[in-house]
Each structure stands twice: as structure tokens, then as C-alpha cells.
Amino acid sequence: MPVRKVMKANEAAAWAARLAKPKVIAAFPITPSTLVPEKISEFVANGELDAEFIKVESEHSAISACVGASAAGVRTFTATASQGLALMHEILFIAAGMRLPIVVAVGNRSLSAPINIWNDWQDSISERDTGWLQFYAENNQEALDLILIAFKVAEDERVLLPAMVGFDAFILTHTVEPVEIPDQEAVDEFLGEYVPKHAYLDPAKPITQGTLAFPAHYMEARYTVWEANENAKKVIDEVFAEFEKRFGRKYQKIEEYRTDDAEIILVTMGSLAGTVKEYVDHLREKGVKVGAAKLTVYRPFPTEEVRELAKKAKVLALLEKNVTFSVGGALFQDFSRALINESEKPRIVDFILGLGGRDVTFRDLDEVMDISKRALAGEEFDEVNWIGLRKEVL
Amino acid sequence: MAESPFKADIERVQKEYSEKMTPGAIAKIPGSSVVNKTGSWRVFMPDFNRDKCVRCYLCYIYCPEPAIYLDEENYPTFDYDYCKGCGICANECPVDAIVMVRESK
Ligand code: SF4
Ligand code: SF4
């Protein structure tokens, strides 16, 4: 029987790792995800998880050790955040290029400077072009579930890509919620053992991994990473469906909330989706035609689902905790790209908010709605809007 | 040109490479440094004058690739698939039997 326990998202991530039975975990502590390896080391020390726990001196080494272990043919896991993920940057490309299904839990945190340990998505968003799959959790249960799902998708032979699962710093990493821990047997059945067919070290059958590719082969090799990302779209749907069948919890690349007949749809990711749904309820009571949508999967980018979503609304308001300077948020670019050749498209308004742990309140969302309503009325509006900015200190 | 002593290896690996790209661009058998021809990097190529050559083999010894073999009469001969045009052979030759000329393709 699955048990329910009250725990932080960090613990939920550690539990997911324990259930997935990785053979190697290499990690370096960083706020806010320190508790993930801490808890895993406890599991290993107690004999509850039969794995090699490697203590390393930096995140660069942590992910490098994971690459080595995965190349040797075992399931691997690590956790990080912010500058730690940035320090992994170089190796992230290598993991994807070598098609190693490593899973990394990311406690989504802002980037320096100034130093800030609180939540936004700048860390993992900055790694969107590495070839990694990216999932974003709304709550602690999703953090656990999505890590299991990430392993299953990553290890699928049609995919073979590393995956990161983001959950918001402190809002989730350090907040306790009831979380259902699935049965070990059920997880074993769902995930199966990782048996690599493409990459494993066997002295009897020597291979070269991460080899040099001349101009004649490099481009093709990169294309296979593109192809794998495309394949992942279908595989993710299949795995979501199987997860629902086995564990009863439904996931979709884009989860819609009260979008039927909505004129304005507020689109976001992570824990902010919870706030936005409640806000939508609050507005619906007043008769405002508004809905919400949550991206559970950010990479591969769910282009088809975005196009479907766009058909439902006149205004898409994108709520993002990240910024690409001089351009806007990452979602703004992705949504614009997905819709650019559609004959009919909604107006897209971008909102940058909640950076570095700034609380996003109903008052901020009122500001979002004011601008969105102007866009709906066909009035002029700024494409990119910073919400909750304290202009008086500028 | 004398035949490369790695001919069998090269053919084996080339066959492997001409097959479909492996996930992760894995080289399934070792030997890629042999099969990846380095001649395409070249800007200058050694031009050999057999009449001047005294067969001292300094070029043969110094070629870092090594892209110089000896032919039936023990004169140096150049494997342009691997000669990267570094010019060391021309520099070492005591009788200027090798000069570097700009490669024209
Ligand atoms: S130019 Fe350099 S690589 Fe080419 S034959 Fe001479 S020494 Fe060898
Ligand atoms: S160094 Fe010059 S002389 Fe000596 S073998 Fe080579 S080409 Fe001939």
C-alpha cells in the first residue's frame, strides 16, 4: 500500500531517487537542494538504498561523476540549484550529446549577482539549450512523481536523454505537504531496471564514448539530439498515461484549468500555477472569463499543445520567473515562435514577476489582469511587463 | 604511394562509420584516430624532389603523423591523407629535397 507522509519537496525528491534505485548518486550541497543528497546519504547509510554515494568537491565534479557512472551503464541521480547548475553547464551538453539518461533534481533558485537563494527559474531556464528534458513540479507530490517519470522517459530507447526536474526553492523545497509514496514494487514494475544497450563499459567490447567528431559527423550527432527531443514528445505522453494507470495521478504537458470559454488564459509553471488557479477561481466567481494553464514539460517544448491552447483564448498572459535581457521571458520567445505561422493567434503579453523569491500575490495578478484586459480590448500594451517592481527604489 | 600499414584497420573502421550514427556518437570500435584523415587540415603540402634526396631519413624520423613511408627503393613517399602540412620534413631535410608549396585543390 502506498503510504502518505508529510515532507518537503527535497525529501520527496530523495524518496523518488530511493524508489528509482540509482546505482550512483554524486552530489555537492547547495541551498536550497542540500537536503536531497543529505537524505539520500541517510538512505544509503541505513542500507535502505543500495547505491554508491559519491561526495565530490563541486557540482562540475558531481555531474562529471554522473556522466562517468552513466557511461558505465548504471542509473544515476544528482540534485543541485542555481550557481551549482550553472557550474554543471559545460557537462550538461556532454551528458545530452552522449545520450546518458541522468536525472537531476533542481531546486529552482535565482542566479547571482546579487546573491539570492530564493526562488525563480533562471537557473534551469538558462540550461534550456543543452538538450536536456525539463519538467517543472507544482507541488511536492509532483516533484516525486515527475522524477520517476523523468527516469522512465529519459531511459526510453527512443529518447536516451538526461532530464531535470525543477521544483521551486523554499516554496516547495522547504515546505511540508502530504506526499504519497508509491509502493516499491509498483515503482519497480513501472521503471524496470536500467539496462543500457547503447552505452556501457565492457572491457571485452571496447567503445569510445564522447569521442571527437570531425565536421563530417558533428552536425549529424547534434541532429540526433534534436531527433531524440522530438521523439520525447510522444514518449512523455505514453509515460504520463502509464503513470496515471498505475498510480492514479494524471499529468499532461500542458495542464489546463477552466480554459473553456476563457478569453484570457494565464500561463505559468511550477508552484505559481497553484496560486494562479486559485486566482482564476476567485475571478470566475466575479464572472470574469479567465483560465489558467501550466507547463509541466518545458523541454521538449510542447509546441502542438501550445497551438491548441492558443485557439482557446484571445489573450495569453505568460507569467514568468526568468528574464532574457532585452527580449523578455523564455516562455514569451517560445510561445511567439510556436504561434508565429498560425493564421489566427491570440495576443501574447509577457509578465516577468517573482524574481529572487519575491512573493506573487493576488494584487500582482490584478496588475497582470489589468494589462491583459487592455490587450483584450485591442488597446496598446507593452509586450513585456515587470510586475511588482518597486519603482520608488530605482 | 606506398600503402598505409593501417589499411586493414582503416577499412574496418570506415565501414563502421559509414553505418548509421550511433546514439551518443559512440565509436563502437577503437581506431578513430587512424580513420579520421588529417590531410584536410593542410594549407601547405610537401613537394618532394627525388633527385636531390640522399635517403638520410630525417624527414621520415621527424614526421609527427607519421605520414612518410619508404617505397621499394627506400625513398621517402608521402601519404597525403594524413600529412597535415606542418612542414617539419621540409625544415629537417639537409639537402632541400622537400619544399612546402601552397596546396591548390
Ligand atoms: S609536412 Fe609534416 S605531416 Fe606532412 S609529411 Fe612533412 S612532416 Fe609529415
Ligand atoms: S630528409 Fe631530405 S634527404 Fe633525407 S630522406 Fe628526407 S627527403 Fe631525403
Automatic annotation (TrEMBL), chain A:
Keywords from the UniProt entry: Oxidoreductase, Pyruvate
UniProt EC number: 1.2.7.1
Record-annotated Pyruvate flavodoxin/ferredoxin oxidoreductase pyrimidine binding domain positions: 16-240
A single MF term (Gene Ontology): pyruvate synthase activity
Annotated GO biological process: response to oxidative stress
Catalytic reaction(s) noted: 2 oxidized [2Fe-2S]-[ferredoxin] + pyruvate + CoA = 2 reduced [2Fe-2S]-[ferredoxin] + acetyl-CoA + CO2 + H(+)
Protein name: Pyruvate synthase subunit PorA
InterPro entries: PFOR_II (IPR033412), Pyruvate:ferred/Flavod_OxRd (IPR050722), Pyruvate_synthase_PorA (IPR053390), Pyrv_Fd/Flavodoxin_OxRdtase_N (IPR002880), THDP-binding (IPR029061), Transketo_C/PFOR_II (IPR009014)
UniProtKB/TrEMBL annotation, chain B:
Cofactor(s) the protein requires to work: [4Fe-4S] cluster
Residue span(s) of domain 4Fe-4S ferredoxin-type: 44-73, 74-103
Classification via Pfam families: Fer4_21
Top-level taxon of origin: Archaea
Recorded GO MF terms: 4 iron, 4 sulfur cluster binding; metal ion binding; oxidoreductase activity, acting on the aldehyde or oxo group of donors, iron-sulfur protein as acceptor
Stored SUPFAM superfamilies: 4Fe-4S ferredoxins
UniProt keywords, alphabetically: 4Fe-4S, Electron transport, Iron, Iron-sulfur, Metal-binding, Pyruvate, Repeat, Transport
Quaternary structure note: Heterotetramer of one alpha, one beta, one delta and one gamma chain.
This protein's name: Pyruvate synthase subunit PorD
